[in-house]
Amino acid sequence: MHPSAAAGQGPCRPLPTILTGLIIGTVLGFILQRGRFCITGALRDLWLSRSWRWFTAFLLAIAVQAVGVAVLTSAGSLTPEIPTLSVVATVVGSFLFGVGIVLAGGCSIGNALVQTSLLSWQGWIALVFQVLGVGAAAWFLLIRPRQRRRAERAASRVPTTV
User: Which helix (H) or strand (E) holds 133?
Assistant: First the structure.
């Protein structure tokens, strides 16, 4: 048995954890689909009809997530690594995200997750591009910079002979 399996960590996670994730994911997916939760729709309603209903729900979701991250961080269960991004990268990324929402006719939750579960071909296309986008972002913003830092630290530890 792998040591991490005995500790309940690593690739050999206990079955209750997997089942809990499946149950929570199924319930959340059902709620999101039935409730027609969409960030794009919330912003559209706020802009066009001055309705704060969905936007308030969106802000509440952000608040709950922020409290959850703060609690997990203070408990030592989570150590977030915050990458530093330039303002230009943030503006360009936000613009591209907005263009994607307009072209797709909705947000990633509505298109990639809910529509995929309903066997919509548009959902599958959105899911493929979402995975590619997240993979590219992870590579360029997290993995590659971390590999560079590790290589630099390893190079600085190499003793020089005189």
Answer: helix 121-138
